[in-house]
Amino acid sequence: MIRRLFVVAAVAAIGLGAAALEAKEWKKIRIGVEGAYPPFSEVGPDGKLKGFDIDIAHALCAKIGAECELVLQDWDGMIPALLAKKFDAIVASMSITEERKRRVDFTDKYYQTAARFVRKKGSGIEITKEGLKGKKIGVQRATIHDNYLTDNYGDTVEIVRYGTQDEANLDMLAGRIDLLLADSIALLDGFLKTERGKDFEFVGPELRDKRWFGEGAGIAVRKEDQDLKKLLNDAIAAIRADGTYDKIAKKYFDFDIYGG
């Protein structure tokens, strides 16, 4: 009888512990951001973070009623840093892919755009196996674009990988690579629309295949933090419904970035 009571008490204690975990109050949410991916995330001349991802992160925290602490992190260390609890969520234009879902969970998407190639005007490069043969293509490492290039053209092109998109853009300007592959909006706003990008252009179709490019950009959280995932999903729905999302989007884009 004593043993039975002990077992019942132990089970009850485990249940209370689980309930306590589920009832965790997220008064402060640490969010990993890249700070090197305009117009989504960058460090301005005043040293402050700005961009679409940054504004979305602040809006979600405000809707949840939590303090928002932004933590700068290099892109290729984002998921390891999340799993190491350096921060609680990633708001960094991270595409929701099956490969990443094996390690982390994602909220619903908060935007969706296509990938594109960029070439120098007058180069005549075409996006075919034959047209790309022997070409050097710049891409940010450990991205969906890196995976797409490797799987589809790895035996045809030389893939040159960079820590940030801007490093790839600079090598394109210097003539060290023949093409870029990245998110179309990051390339448009961060390169083609700028003075330095005036001699370059998109080439080839918009790339959207879910096998490589996923289901849109979502917020990554640790698998055990289902309560935070729900809070963020509810907050995404709320800022979509009350106009906050559209107000933020219109600061950066003249089209519907949510639908992709």
Any chance you could write out the topology, listing elements then pairs?
Elements: H1 2-22, E1 28-33, E2 36-37, E3 41-43, E4 49-50, H2 52-64, E5 67-72, H3 78-83, E6 89-95, H4 98-101, E7 105-106, E8 115-120, H5 129-132, E9 136-140, H6 144-153, E10 158-162, H7 165-173, E11 179-183, H8 184-192, E12 200-207, H9 210-213, E13 217-221, H10 226-241, H11 244-252
Parallel strand pairs: 1-5, 1-6, 9-10, 9-11
Antiparallel strand pairs: 2-3, 3-4, 6-13, 7-13, 8-11, 8-12
Q: Order of strands across the widest beta sheet?
A: 5-1-6-13-7
Count of individual domains: 2
CATH topology of the largest domain: D-Maltodextrin-Binding Protein, domain 2
Principal-axes shape call: globular
CATH architecture of the largest domain: 3-Layer(aba) Sandwich
CATH superfamily of the largest domain: Periplasmic binding protein-like II
- Regarding quaternary structure, how should these chains be classified? single chain
Helix content: 40-55%
Count of beta strands: 13
